[in-house]
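sorry for the late reply, my laptop died twice this morning and i had to redo everyting from scratch. anyway the thing you sent over, i finally got around to it. pasting the sequence first so we're on the same page, its 268 residues, then the predicted structure underneath. double check i copied it right bc i was rushing
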Amino acid sequence: MITLQQLLNTQSDILNHAKVKVVRHKDSREEYRHVMKDRQALLEYQKEQAKDVFKGCDYIVSFIGAERKRSIFIGVFKINWSEPRGNKHYYDLTPVPEFECFVDRLVIDWGKNAIAWHQWYNTQDKEVIELLPQGYIGNFPGLLDFVLEFDELRTLVQNPDANHDWRHHLSAVNGVYLILDSKTGRQYIGSACGNEGIWQRWCNYAATGTGGNKELVALHQNDPLYHRYFRFSVLQSLPSNVTPCEIVTIENLYKQKLGSRAHGLNQN
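ok and here's the structure:
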């Protein structure tokens, strides 16, 4: 068995000479679900705590809680200083670059005491379950069973070998897809056909942010990073022998059902 402590020591021994806590963020409350998915928001979220839970710490080793007791590494952070702010406690945190090679890749077993979300680093060995490939975004759940944030889509496209199942399934089918503007709730419905199906079309979105669609391009005029609000999903997969004309007919039906022309981001 390889432990968390052993693996991190291969990169640096700075944690051996410091007071360190290991923490596991997992919050199913509705108001925090977006935080758990947005990495930057999560890093800000951990800076504020209801109590002074990191009192006396020099560093924290942070994870996101996954299914059962699996936990995914998001970084080691140095605590520069802390102070009370209102009814909360604020910590100024800096990522430690020596351990960035394990971010989003290192998976550990949190252990028996799953309820305790913060523990002293040296009181219990944490077993390393897996070290995932660079750029891996998770198991492919099925064509109709996922929603990808834009950053996840870009990571997927930039790391096709690490996400072979995603590329295989998305390139094997044509289909009708949905882009949700999570800021406004408006929808864009499109379709994809060709040698690499949905994968090929979504690669274009990952590269440009807009795919060249007029309404999506317009959203970027005032905010060049507007694509960070886009979420991608498949509405219906279609076999490769369906004609382009048939695909457009199905696409138009979805536009009619969901009102994406009158109230969304489709112009035609």
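Residues 244-258 form the longest helix (15 residues).
thats about all i looked at so far, will dig more tmrw
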